[in-house]
Amino acid sequence: MEKTDRKERCLVLTLHSAYYDDSIPNWRMPSVTVGQHILVLVVQGKVAYRINHEDIGAEKGDLLYIPIGTVRSAENGEPVPHRKYSALFHHSCPPGVVPLFDNNVFTKKRISNIDYVAKRFEALHREWQEEKPMYPFIASGILQELAGIASRATEMTDISPTKWMLAEKMQRHIREHYREPLNVGEMAQLIQRSPNYAISLFKEVTGQTPVKYMQQLRIAEARNLLVGTDFTITEIADYLGFYDTSYFYKTFKKLTGLSPSAFVARREP
């Protein structure tokens, strides 16, 4: 209960401004003490930062958290101008709610799903530029998602960019073929590694096996189909590639805590 109460006391994140630096020649920022918290995603090239009098390099795939009060300067890295998104914001979250915000320290982490995170930053930047109705509410939601992604990255062990890239290739393959039987050989061939290495790497990076990841995708879609269509449970099981309905029941209950029929009954008015 205490954990839930702390989360409920976390106020909405408030966007101050959002920027997209698109290959600006001779780009540089003088040394200042920042007045807002900042999230930065580098999507191309390199940036040479100086954070609290320490030189920090950032490149494509790096997600940075620069807390309020940080002394920061920056300029283009070599050899070409960089591209990056920046979001400046305020928050009032107490300690223990969002790990990223604890201790108020600079953090740099590699992320595996850069394409998705870049799209979320792009959406945040667009909301700030266009200022359509409800944009502060929408921007706050995107900010919270990005803070969650960054917090999750800070809690994971350091993994090489190559491993992140290979794991993302396998995840993408499973997402595109999750209704089909899982073929570890195809995944291994995709990353040009052995099947045993592919499974081991996938688990190291994602914290779960390829089979469990596929099952999560299937059950997530099953939940949508159960409440959004008139498909029978047998039809859903067959559509999602389960070899029999009893196995679908078992998997659904294992991941949701409810049987498919109980899940539907709970959602009915």
TrEMBL record:
Gene3D superfamilies, alphabetized: Homeodomain-like
Keyword Iron: no
Domain HTH araC/xylS-type: 168-266
UniProt GO molecular function: DNA-binding transcription factor activity; sequence-specific DNA binding
Coiled coil: none
Signal peptide feature range: none
Pfam family, one: AraC_binding
Transmembrane residue ranges: none
Alphabetic keyword roster: DNA-binding, Transcription, Transcription regulation
Protein name: AraC family transcriptional regulator
Organism: Paenibacillus ginsengarvi
